[in-house]
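Researcher: Let's run the pair from yesterday's discussion. Sequence first, then tokens, for each.
Model: Starting with the first of the pair.
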Amino acid sequence: MVKVVLFLLGVLLSGCLWESPNFQELDYLPLDDSEFPYAGLPRLVIETKDFKEIRNRETEHEAFFQIYGKERAETEIFKMKIRGRGHSSFLFPKFSYRLKFEEKISLFGMPENKDWILLSNFADKSMLKNKLTFCLAKKLNASYAPRSEFVELYVNREYLGVYQLTEKIEVAKNRVNIPERSGAFLIEIDNKYSRKDSVLFTPFFDIPLHIHEGEHSLLKDKKALKDFVGEFESYLLNETSYSEKELSKWLDLESYFRVYWIQEFSRNVDGFLNSTYFTWVSNTPMQFGPVWDFDIAYGGAHEINPEGWYTRNYSWNKELFSDVDFQKKANHYWIENKNIFAEILDSLSFWELELKEPAKNNFKRWPVLESTESWAHRESFHSYLEAVESLRNWLRIRIKWINKNLS
């Protein structure tokens, strides 16, 4: 009790939490949930040093982090750094964050790590599209798909809504598990790269390959990567049919078909243009995944129509699907796994129930359910449940259309 009184006195006198001499001794960060009451999700409470605002994606701010349950703090206070993240999504009023802790920690039972992401899902009124995609990839036996949990977020004593706390895509034993050595790369097809990023352009298709891990590899290893992809592109352009044996030199077909069908199923506008990851280790084929960034997929933004082929018209896919035999192999993957794609509909009911009450807080803070003013908000809904039902209906139509139109 004495500590709390001293703390409050320090705040009143200084006006700054970090200047309180007793801050390090506290067991909790302040949380006022009188306007946005507990709704069943864990609450993440973050305070930056001197209450500095997070205004960009480059500046890291020192901060403290704590998890609250219904009535009280349930963890110790952790030191961390926080900054904004995202490309066009960073321009939304509710944006995402990158967290980096001083020490590796486990959050909600997920494996220990220093690096985490808070996804805002502002473009997605169901707030479920990234979650269902990560779970779909796992059900399809992806070697890794980001684990995540829904939370409610407070930053500098301001309620910011429902967020998805998820693992950052990076090379680690319990994440993207490839050798941490020269000649091993984690790569993103990324047309939204920035000038500071390490980027290679493919020789024939001019696809920007953003190197996330392996950027410090030797020049000879980067050249080997570019030569490898160049040989693959040359093969695509100079052959009219593609044998499985030849393709397997460059593509791990199982991982390729998995990622292709997740992108095609969701009609993701970013599919094979942005946020499409693969790994390459010298003398092995490309392994596709993990999946990432689906908040404007599944009928969001520009591609609201659930019918028609989409992802196969872009990038390397356009050449691959010009071959009838390749189409048959791709179709076979869908036929063998179509029940898994259909089962994701059942999961919606569970997550819908989990977010039903928190959504009331979220859309009180961000009243956009009925709005279509943002480029990312194409539909108006009277309730959160209506938004989820719209997603459910879109998925049903999409599955039906794919089943009917396999050639």
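Model: Moving on to the second of the pair.
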Amino acid sequence: MASTASTSKKLVIAVDLGGTKTAAGLVNERLEVLDSIETKTVTSSQQALLDSIVAAVRKLMQRAPAPVAGVGFGIPSMIDQVHGRVVMSVNVPLADFDFVSCMKAELKLPVFIDNDANLAALAEVRAGAARGVREALMITIGTGIGGGVIIGGEVYRGSTGSAAELGHIVIDVNGPPCQGNCPNNGCFETMASGTALKRYAGEAAREKPQSALGKAATRGATLDGALVSQLAAKGDADARAVLDRIGFYVGAGITGLINVFNPEVFVLGGGIMQAGDAILRPAIDYLHARGLKPNRDLVRVVPASFGPEAGMLGAACMVLENT
């Protein structure tokens, strides 16, 4: 979406705060990114993180050709929308923190905050794979699984703003313990995330040390989605089996959600979906075999239009729609 086009009337700053990197962009009403800054996320302390965020936003404000209407933040955390607080946060040191109040004091601008997956879903509905749809779901599959729910064309946030933790529906009550601060077992993200993929690939490598996965593990390679997808594309049966397993559990998760919500579109995003049809195909096969009519027949399951910039574009949409 980056562009050098002339600005439209309203300019906003959108920040996608990730566990490893932070992307901030100056965005206009056409969702054109006129300027951007990407930095490594500082997690050494809360104050150091806040200082780095403020510095990036101020730099974009200084470079903006016109006044900025507001700033939106997408954060990989549970959010209390009523009080502008970060409630729980695993990957960034912001838990139990009055984020909106702090940023308003620092930046002297209207500030808005939401979960990053909610904002990715908003971007897809406003301008992406689910454009114009009023009932949609999205999951972002990375280290974990984030979720966004669109009802009546708007983000559904629940009573306080912490709804749509779709990665924490339980797929297997006897499955492995969930990661982070979740006290459950066999959650969707435990069974179908990038973390799960690494676990399945490691299991396959140990079972067959002379296989391509086994040899990769022996030489110290990271058995991540990129490597597994590369081996699968070359026809490696073990790598394909790992992706089939992820696709099976993605199918299990989305089928339950489609049964509950009856969406028009279900968008699959996140880094793991770079594997494309290798995951999408078994997921849709599961849906068609086990989903309830008419929901399974009406829904379109599609890959996301936006990649890493989805959260930032969604944050821009949030500010544009509220200023």
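Researcher: Give me one sentence on the second I can quote.
Model: The longest helix spans residues 237-261.
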